[in-house]
Amino acid sequence: xxxxxxxxxxxxxxxxxxxxxxxxxxxxxxxxxxxxxxxxxxxxxxxxxxxxxxxxxxxxxxxxxxxxxxxxxxxxxxxxxxxxxxxxxxxxxxxxxxxxxxxxxxxxxxxxxxxxxxxxxxxxxxxxxxxxxxxxxxxxxxxxxxxxxxxxxxxxxxxxxxxxxxx
Amino acid sequence: xxxxxxxxxxxxxxxxxxxxxxxxxxxxxxxxxxxxxxxxxxxxxxxxxxxxxxxxxxxxxxxxxxxxxxxxxxxxxxxxxxxxxxxxxxxxxxxxxxxxxxxxxxxxxxxxxxxxxxxxxxxxxxxxxxxxxxxxxxxxxxxxxxxxxxxxxxxxxxxxxxxxxxxxxxxxxxxxxxxxxxxxxxxxxxxxxxxxxxxxxxxxxxxxxxxxxxxxxxxxxxxxxxxxxxxxxxxxxx
Lengths: 167, 238
Fold this sequence. Notes:
Chain A is mainly alpha-helical. Chain A is 81% helix and 0% strand. In chain A, helix 5 crosses helix 7. Chain A is globular. A two-stranded antiparallel sheet of chain B has the order 1-2.
């Protein structure tokens, strides 16, 4: 019986991986503009999810869990980057990144970031998930742990704010 | 930075296309499972598997295995003539021959790792092309989805092996049903009725199949210049 549960856990994990690996990767890429970092964050996110699923059998809200892990890892990355930038400056040197992302990737991510990050904080996540990831309201609600109604309201207001900022 | 709506929509469209490659996903899963083992067990799936269509195909492949072709194909790499046989027939058969779901999952994970290893070998030889990468990725796709069991890729392999083997088997085993089953891709394969399927011990079938799909290694791969280095079989990983 336990074996069958484990088997189902793995199937569920792989389903989530196939459905959300790219979503997490793009979120990390959007936030960091670094392909290597985005890959690392994606792998770490799913590693933590897998560990939780193995130890607890099932995660109650896996989408929200994944999103939170990814967000935390992105924040950690920025914290580490700030520290290392300071160290680099103190040493007076600069070492370029091993794998520089393509100009297109940077340009797209930067462009989207420049537009979305100008919105009020409460609209940023919903606008990103809706307009960039084209996710359904229900999924966004589950991911952000807010009601679908609130998601819809924020999407509409966020869109309006965004349109006001266009040239 | 002020942007136009058009610029935003274009960036949104192209950004959504960015995704992890199949190889990257396979490598991630492999790393995740190597850090925290995959606990997969399930009750025996039953002896009825012996009478499934896959076993009928396995019989055809066993003939190929004994001919030595399978041994050679086990060492093939993406782009090689025998590679479709390895990934389209031998590996799915070896997978089907594993009785428990646990064994199946372990083998599937192993195959994903093997795809990454093959790319590594090609890369080290400087022979990794986009085409070979695409072939490998297509092969990996089959094993990435845990929910879907693996189908034998008859389309890719029938021209090379199945049809000649089928002919040979018909001569050896006259009781083969003349019915054919049509697969989703339109190719046809003969069906063996249970009463005419020759029975052979499980271990024999598994040994043959497992041996035919041993891990490729840098030492015993045929060299790129065409000189065939003698193959030193590794101990089969049971």
